[in-house]
Every structure is written in C-alpha cells, then in structure tokens.
User: Which sequence fits this backbone?
C-alpha cells in the first residue's frame, strides 16, 4: 500500500485492493474515500465490495466517483463534504491518486494560497499545473478567463529578463515579445554596495520599469501565479492567461527575510541593516558613520545567494571608513559565514586574506544566523563543525549587516519547471529547459552552477537569444551559443580599489583584461573606476538595450541527429 500525506486529515494513493484493507486499518486510518468509478479497470474491486470488507476492519467508506479529466464543481463539493464528515484520518484513492489530490486542491482553493496548494501536491508527487487556473479561480470552472497569445513571453522585468528581451529584439526587431512583472521600479542592484558606503545615492540605482522595457516589447504589469507548460500557458493573478510559443523564465530569486526569526521586525533600526534591500543600504552607511567602536557583525547564509561576494564587500568598505576615521582599532569586526571558506574561488582567497589581516577581521565559518533580537542587540547562530555537530552560539552587537537566506520564488518552486532543488532546471550550456524545449531560463532563478550576478545575466542573455531564435528557425547558424558559467564579482576591498574576480564553471578564472591593465589577483584602481563610472551606464545603456560589448557568446557545432 502506497500512501502520500496531503494533510493531517487526508492521505492519498493509487488503487486499493481488498487485501490492502487490513494494512490501511493498521496504519491508523479511520475512513476510506473512493474517487475511482466502478468498472474503470478490469482488476479493481467495486465500491460495494470495498465498503463491505472495510466494515470488518472498523473503517467507514464513502464513494465520490470522478471520471478522469471531468471534475465537476459538484464533485468538489461532494468531496469536501466527505472529508468534513468522515472520521479522520482518511485514505483517499483513485487509479493513481491524482484525481483525489485534484479534488483536495480544488476544495482548498480560495482558503489557501495557490503556491501552497501546488507545493503540497508536488511534494506528494502530483503535478497539478493543468488545473492551476481553476484553483486560482476559487476551485470553480472558469468559462470566461481573459486570454492572449504572444510569440515570446518573458517572465521577469529584472536585469536578466530585460536583457534577454533586448538581445532578441536587437537580432529580430519584428518579434512579438511581452514582459510580465508586477513591479513599478527597476533596480540596479550591484550599486547597493556603493550606496552602503556613501558612494552612490539610493536614487542612482532606481528607475521606472516601464521606461526600460526594450523598444518593441510590451509590458504586462501583473504577478505570475502558475505555469502550465503542457498547454504553453502562464497564469497571472486574476485568472488572466497568457499563451506563448516560447517562454523565457527570469523572475530572480526570493530574498527570505522571514527565514530569520525576529529579523523583519528590526530591519532598519536597532543597528540592524542590509545592503540587499534598496531602502536599507543607506542605513548601512548611517550606521558605519556613527559607529565609534564596539562590535560589528557581518553575516552570510548558506549558498546560493545573489552576488556571493556582497556580504564581505560591505565589511571591507565599512572597515576602510573606520580606518580612515581612526576608529577601526576600537571596533571588533567579525565575519560569520555559514559556508566553509572566505570565497568560493580559491585563487582569490590570498589577496582577500591580506585585507582580513589588515582590518583585523575575525573569521567564523560554519555560523548560520537564525535568530536576532534587535532591541537587545543579540544574534544567535547555528555553528556546524566539520563532523556535523551543531551548537548554538550567541553574539552581541552594536551593528550587524545581515544577508538573509535566498530561495526560488514560491511560484517557481512548485511549478513543473522546477528541478529537485526548486530552481528552474536548464541545460547549463544552452540554458534551455531540460524537459520543455520551448522554454529557456536565465538569471538568478535557474539551476546552473554559476554565480548569481548581473554580470552573469549579461553573458547569458545573448546565449538565450541566439538559441531561441535558432529554435524558431530565425537563424541560419549551425552552431549553438554556449554559456561557460561566467560571473564577475568586483570585490570592493577599500574605497578606490577592487579585486576584480571573474570566473566560470568549476571556479575557473576568466579574466576579461590583460594583466598589465587589470590584474584580477591584485587590488586595482582601474577596476574601481570600472565599477563606479563605467558599469552603471553599460548596464542602463547597453545591457538593457541589446548592445553587447564583451558579451558575445561562444559557439559549438550542433550534434548530428544521425
């Protein structure tokens, strides 16, 4: 007997046979709910037989038969009534468990978030994307859902989504492209590190999204709630359906502030800050300027996170300010990293360690922040040793820069597009989905093992554009564009100097400049000039406009079908 728990009240599974009833009772179930019509299969017992034998084991049975693909509103009501009335826990079944799970999902529509319903079903092994629209409509059959269709739908109006749309239109200006995003504003997030050091103002990093959607593309200002790739459809809030010929998925990732107990209540006050949010980065600078000694903590959660160097960038720039003001010697600085090392690419660790020593920073690896009390200025970490032993350690602080855990957006995690870890599953070279040939993904949301940075998205966009156009028959090239995992992390080790880390898959260094111009293993003033003065206009005026200096993709021959 195979059982999959949906809730405390209900578990589901495939067809039960009379010989399974003793095991059902032994497992603690009190009722059986049959959703498979009699006579659907030659080997199934009738409901009358199930009900008669179930009584002998003290089990109550209820019959709510549903024909595959024909779940009526009345069926959902009958199922909900049965679950309400039957003794619990209940074991429900059909041929595979899918119809029972579908009935449960529709009965929960309107009382639970769609992502929670789809996520529960997915955890049990059932893909309900085909009924997502109906769930979004409160479980009722929707006969008048507004629909539209486009050649290419881009989900996400961040760096990756806009860059991909711009790359496509730069190559084929007649394409019908729509970008879907609920936001009003678009942010240049790499600038927030410099906001936290007083180099940029917050306003320099924010512009209206509508003003930066590539010319020729349309913007739909709405949130995506689900995907139905079997029907080439994206479902938006309000049950609006957008159909596509090709789909690009680039909504970024979820910055999960609530995953740290007490953090949302104290952000932006009590000395608690983060450069990972637009409205907090300037508070970082305020704290750094006002701190005249004491304890400053800088945290980093488990990977993956966007811009893995950003947590220590904030630390180095803060230390440089304190050094300039003469207060560094009175300040205890500690870097508490959930990971095992300072930086993921080993070649860059030695030059970074020179600054760690110069600033007198204490390094604490295997420390993961899980709780904070802002008013009392105390933070708690789970410290994991090499042997896996976990202990709770407490730190007091005067200032703490927090980097929250990061995860796939909920509507991605529960979708058919997600792989085992919840990120969109792609071929790491072509960025094409591993299951759906007309779907591509780029940016922070996909599961290729690269650094999640804007620089990575800049290199990924032309790869997606070229490969997608080839799929559409709009390219005569016999090659596939290939992404090599490129990412860049300009490590701001002091004001005016940067270690320009550039690397690809496997931590291989991929420097863009000759050593005589910028040596990527040494702090460089020219690299600082690049980040402060050149990269912002390159972002706004090139990357988001389909211009691709130093971003042309590599190519490989398409393998023969023979």
Assistant:
């Amino acid at each position: 007997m195979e059982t999959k728990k949906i809730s405390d009240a209900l578990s589901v599974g495939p067809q039960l046979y009379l010989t399974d009833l003793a095991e059902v009772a032994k497992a603690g179930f009190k009722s059986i709910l049959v959703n498979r019509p009699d006579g659907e299969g030659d080997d199934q017992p009738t409901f009358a037989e199930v009900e008669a034998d179930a009584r002998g084991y003290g089990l109550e049975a209820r019959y709510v038969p549903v024909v595959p693909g024909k779940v009526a509103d009345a069926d959902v009501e009958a199922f909900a009534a049965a679950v309400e009335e039957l003794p619990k826990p209940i074991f429900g079944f059909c041929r595979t468990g899918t119809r029972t799970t579908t009935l449960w999902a529709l009965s929960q529509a309107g009382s639970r978030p769609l992502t929670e319903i789809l996520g529960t079903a997915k955890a049990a092994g059932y893909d309900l994307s085909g009924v997502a629209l109906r769930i979004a409509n409160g479980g009722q059959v929707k006969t008048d859902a507004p629909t539209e269709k486009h050649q290419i739908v881009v989900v996400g109006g961040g760096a990756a989504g806009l860059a991909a749309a711009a790359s496509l239109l730069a190559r084929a200006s007649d394409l019908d492209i729509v970008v879907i995003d609920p936001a009003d504003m678009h942010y240049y997030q790499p600038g927030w590190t410099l906001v936290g050091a007083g180099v940029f103002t917050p306003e320099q990093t924010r512009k209206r999204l509508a003003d930066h959607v590539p010319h020729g593309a349309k913007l739909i200002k709405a949130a995506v709630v689900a995907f139905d790739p079997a029907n080439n459809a994206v479902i938006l809030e309000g049950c609006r359906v957008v159909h596509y010929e090709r789909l690009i998925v680039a909504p970024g990732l979820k910055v999960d502030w609530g995953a740290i107990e007490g953090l949302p209540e104290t952000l932006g006050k009590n000395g608690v800050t983060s450069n990972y949010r637009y409205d907090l980065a300037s508070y970082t600078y305020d704290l750094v300027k006002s701190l005249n000694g004491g304890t400053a903590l800088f945290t980093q959660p488990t990977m993956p996170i966007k811009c893995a160097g950003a947590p220590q960038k904030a630390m180095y720039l803060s230390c440089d300010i304190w050094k300039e003001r003469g207060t560094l010697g009175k300040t205890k600085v500690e870097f508490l990293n959930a990971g095992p090392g300072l930086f993921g690419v080993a070649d860059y660790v030695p030059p970074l360690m020179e600054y760690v020593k110069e600033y007198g920073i204490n390094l604490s690896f295997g420390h993961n922040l899980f709780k904070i009390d802002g008013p009392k200025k105390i933070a708690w970490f789970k410290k994991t040793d090499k042997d896996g032993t976990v202990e709770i350690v407490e730190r007091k602080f005067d200032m703490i820069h927090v980097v929250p855990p990061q995860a796939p957006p909920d509507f991605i995690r529960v979708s058919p597009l997600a792989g085992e870890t919840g990120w969109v599953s792609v071929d790491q070279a072509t960025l094409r989905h591993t299951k759906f040939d007309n779907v591509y993904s780029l940016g922070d949301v996909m599961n290729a093992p690269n650094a999640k940075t804007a620089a990575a998205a800049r290199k990924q966009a032309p790869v997606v554009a070229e490969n997608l156009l080839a799929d559409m028959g709009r390219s005569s090239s016999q090659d596939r564009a290939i992404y090599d995992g490129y990412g860049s992390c300009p490590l701001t080790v002091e004001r005016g100097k940067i270690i320009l880390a550039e690397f690809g898959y496997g931590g291989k260094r991929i420097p863009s400049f000759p050593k005589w111009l910028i040596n990527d293993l040494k702090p460089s003033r020219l690299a600082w000039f690049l980040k402060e003065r050149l990269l912002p206009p390159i972002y706004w005026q090139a990357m988001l406009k389909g211009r691709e200096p130093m971003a042309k993709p590599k190519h490989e021959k398409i393998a023969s079908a023979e």
